[in-house]
Specification:
The chain is of the alpha+beta class. It folds into 4 domains: 194 residues, Four Helix Bundle (Hemerythrin (Met), subunit A) (Up-down Bundle), CATH 1.20.120; 102 residues, PAS domain (Beta-Lactamase, 2-Layer Sandwich), CATH 3.30.450.20; 91 residues, Helix Hairpins; 154 residues, 2-Layer Sandwich (Heat Shock Protein 90), CATH 3.30.565. Helix content is 62%, strand content 14%. The chain has a 5-stranded antiparallel β-sheet with strand order 2-1-5-4-3, with helices on both faces. A hairpin with a 4-residue loop joins strand 1 and strand 2.
């Protein structure tokens, strides 16, 4: 702090001290005047009350004289008067030992009222005694005393009211005086403070500019990107170290050169377009440009330019931030090459998938073609239409027939699974009785169930009309019953098929007492080719296609299918819900 600033500060402190002293003294005087005003105001109110009490007591005494009995209680009223008389002396404040100067000023008036009151009280007490005589004369005396007491109260009231008015006027003038003093002191203080703040502000502004310049230079040089400053002709005025290092120049070689000298020949038009855009709009955002190094090599950058203006808003140049995107460019090239390879692989996979579909359709057809006559001839042999066979031969032929049916079912499932996957499964829907479909399916599966001594029971309930492809629903039921036959214990296996209606849906439950399904597998068994037991020693056959075909057929009917089981060796339930006919 310089000497001049110290003097100004000392003056300011002295002025503040004087102002505080004046304000403190003024407030003490204000408090004194205010207390006198309160004292006088309270005394005016009390004097008014005493006037009223004086007249009230007089009226009660007159009533007593006329009627011969007391209507009110003049003695109690006089007690109130006496209390008020004391308050009148203390300015309405009980036990006030610090009496106001006003109490001394009006001491004579108060003593006159007090003497009149004592005389008034004595005469009334004598007047109301039962054996009092000569009451008429006494009443006249009491009335005179009352008039004097009222008159004296009125005189005191007027004097106190004038005192209140005088004190109010003095308070107003004193407050105005304080306001004027405070305003003057504040104005002088404001002027001095303004002078100090102005100088401080000028110093701070200068300091901030210096700091800002240092920070800008530090930020400019510390930027990880290339930075350059140009004028409106495109001449480089400044640049950071990253710029010089990236292009292989020294700073002296860069300053004064045109921005086009650092631009690749193939991008000169793009740079010129970007430069013209900046001059028109004042900015350039994320412009891809190829730069040229001192050794002639080129590299890609991302260019962002902002505007520099003078104090009048005139364009004088630009700060440009340039990001080297060589790594991004290389990564983009690799990504494009990867995308090209992926597209090529996808095309090959699609071709392979198409070949796979064609092969599957062909192989299933070729497998099915010889199996149909084989199954037909075996059934003829079993029926003994072309000659008798012995019991051993019949058993062997039935095994062949059952295996043939399993193979035909597998081929059919493969074809259906392929159609479902391609969205080509056709459903010939008509209205059918679901109970009739279940009955027909059970009858067809009964020989296989009898062979394994497994009981199939039904709980069909009332007829349920269903808009469906009856052959496909029968296929679903056959697959479910076939699975239950495979997993139920032989000789004592049980399969139950239950039908029911629920909220405009037809429900089917196929329940068995087989090996059950673990909780982990419940949501997986309808996935194509999923096997609960995938070990080489598994006891049960199947390819994991049947249930996925069932799911596709049920969902094709707008229904849903799911499995429930309490775990291994606790049986399983397959639930189906299909929309019923409204």
């Amino acid at each position: 702090m310089n000497e001049k600033t110290k003097k100004v500060s000392n003056k300011l402190v002295l002025l503040v001290g004087i102002q505080i002293a004046i304000i403190s003294t003024s407030f003490l005087i204000l408090e004194l005047f205010e207390s006198q005003k309160v004292f006088a105001g309270n005394s005016v109110n009390i004097a008014g009350k005493n006037r009223f009490l004086t007249e009230m007591v007089l009226n009660e005494v007159k009533d007593y004289y006329i009627k011969g009995k007391l209507i009110g209680d003049p003695i109690s009223a006089l007690a109130i008067y006496e209390k008020n008389l004391h308050l009148l002396k203390t300015g309405g404040i009980q036990n006030n030992i610090n009496l106001s100067p006003l109490s001394e000023k009006f001491q004579g008036e108060w003593e006159n009222i007090n003497d009149l009151y004592l005389d008034y009280k004595t005469k009334i007490q004598i007047f109301v005694e039962p054996d009092s005589t000569n009451r008429e004369t006494k009443l006249v005396e009491i009335s005179d005393l009352a008039d004097k007491l009222v008159a004296q109260n009125d005189v005191l009231t007027v004097q106190l009211a004038l005192e209140v008015q005088n004190l109010t006027t003095m308070l107003i003038w004193l407050q105005a005086f304080l306001i004027i003093i405070n305003i003057g002191a504040h104005l002088f203080m404001v002027k001095m403070i303004y002078s100090i703040l102005k100088k401080k502000t000028e110093q701070l502004v200068k300091m901030e500019k210096e700091i800002a310049a240092d920070k800008y230079r530090s930020f400019y040089e510390g930027m990880p990107d290339l930075c350059r400053t140009i004028n409106e002709e495109g001449i480089i005025l400044d640049c950071n170290m990253v710029y010089t290092r990236s292009l292989g120049y020294t700073k002296e070689e860069v300053i004064g050169k045109s921005i086009f000298e650092h631009t690749s020949e193939k991008n000169l038009d793009a740079m010129n377009e970007s430069f013209e855009q900046w001059k028109k709009t004042g900015k350039v955002s994320n412009k891809d440009i190829w730069f040229k190094r001192k050794d002639g090599t080129i590299f890609p950058v991302l260019l962002n330019a902002t505007t520099l203006t003078d104090d009048k808003g005139k364009l004088i140049g630009s700060n440009t931030v340039i990001r080297d995107i060589t790594d991004i460019y290389e990564a983009r090239k690799k990504l494009e090459e990867s995308e090209r390879q992926i597209k090529e692989q996808l095309t090959n996979l699609q071709k392979l998938n198409s070949l796979k579909d064609d092969f599957l359709a062909m192989i299933t057809h070729e497998l099915k073609t010889p199996l149909v006559p084989i199954k037909g001839y075996i059934d003829i042999l079993i029926s003994e239409k072309i000659g008798p066979i012995n019991e051993e031969q019949k058993k062997k032929l039935e095994i062949v027939s059952s295996s043939t049916r399993s193979l035909l079912r597998l081929i059919s499932d493969l074809l259906d699974a392929q159609k479902i996957e391609l969205g080509q499964l056709k459903l010939n829907k008509d209205v059918h009785d679901l109970a009739e479909i279940v009955t027909n399916t059970v009858n067809k599966m009964k020989p296989d169930a009898d062979r394994y001594e497994i009981a199939i029971t039904t709980d069909l309930g009332n007829p349920i009309a269903l808009l469906c492809d009856n052959a496909r629903i029968e296929q679903v039921l056959s697959n479910l019953i076939f699975n239950s036959l495979d997993f139920c214990p032989k000789q004592n296996g049980k399969i139950n098929i239950k039908l029911f209606s629920e909220n405009k849906h037809a429900g089917i439950i196929v329940k068995d007492n087989g090996i059950g399904i673990s909780k982990e597998s419940l949501n997986k068994i309808f996935v194509k080719f999923y096997q609960v037991d995938t070990s080489t020693t598994r006891e049960h056959g199947g390819t994991g296609i049947g249930l996925s075909v069932c799911k596709g057929i049920v969902e094709g009917h707008g229904g849903k299918i799911w499995a429930e089981s309490d775990g291994r060796d606790k049986g399983a339930e397959i639930h189906i819900l299909l929309p019923s006919v409204k």
